[in-house]
Amino acid sequence: MKLRNLLFATTAMLAATPVFAQQDEMGVWTELELEKKISKRFELSGGLDFRFNDNVGETSRWRVTLGGTYKLNDWLKTGVTYQCISDLSRGETKEDFKKSSGAFNGYNVDEAFRRDKHRFTFDLTGKWKVGRFSIGLRERYQFTHSVATDVDRVRYRDEVPAGYSGDSYEFGGYRWITREPAVDHKGHKNNHQLRSRLEVEYDIPNCKLTPSVSYELKSSLQDAMATAGARITAGVEWKLNKKQSVSAAYIFDDGHYEDDPNLHVLKIGYKFKF
User: Fold this and answer.
1) Single pTM value for the model
2) What is the pLDDT of residue 9?
3) How many angstroms separate the Cα of 167 from the Cα of each of 156, 161, 221, 244?
4) What CATH number does domain 3-90+118-148+189-273 carry, 2.120.10.30, 2.40.160.40, 3.40.50.150, 1.20.950.20?
């Protein structure tokens, strides 16, 4: 495959991407990776990345990663990582109902807040050569612990009755007598996932560019293997020299749950090998 054919195919793929729906968002992810080969089989790695989502309007996540891989044989390796994550959760508005009668009681409005997370992963990755193609299958167990935190909240209560002439506050299409600050405690959470990824790379003769495509399926281990999302990635890596490389990719992240938007991401990375 010649380089111009690869570029033409990439352009055609991007042109065929559907027009973003209202619930879709754009993002930019940046990543720095460091790798150190300890022996023929053992390698250490570290990384730092930032994610800008909500149509690149906010820093939605930063993450520090430490890990290592061990090559079991020519085609199979295993790996473990620890990730320290700071995630931004958006503001949220919820309707409140009286416990006694179930009648509508007002609104609870939570401010946006950051939550720290600790994530551990265990990988088993197989990779096979087929001509100039490399086919990789990775199975990842992922455990995430979200730390408990307190969130600022505003409560709107006591809808204005007919004939009322005192102070009031407008929210949600209603007028309320009471607008009071409060604090909502978000308890810690644990999440277990299986992330299965199939990836195909192509080795272009006499070229430093390596294109790849992958499909990843997320399954919830605490919900009977229910699908928790999917991700499609198409990108290219450019080897600057033996130690350095840069990469760029388009990622489509499926907003599987009702409140999650579909995410279209431009990912840019830099890798340095010691």
Assistant:
1) 0.85
2) 46
3) 13, 12, 51, 64
4) 2.40.160.40
